[in-house]
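**Backbone shape codes:**
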Amino acid sequence: MMPAKCLNQWLHRQRTDPYIREARLSSYRCRSAFKLLQLQESLLPTGGLIRPGHVVLDCGAAPGSWSQVSDFKLPLW
């Protein structure tokens, strides 16, 4: 079992992290979904991270937020 101090630190981090809050509001599984969205947006001038003809393979997809974003938010070709 986790010591009380570590648990309190984790809870504080969970409550104050803006990405965790936004993930809950956006129905994403976890905060890492925003990293993929950020990468895709920053690379849009060069065609994006995922381009037409690319295949997305999310190995070890737990909790699956990258799969969730690639399935619902990225353009389908």
About this structure: The two ends are 47 Å apart (CA to CA).
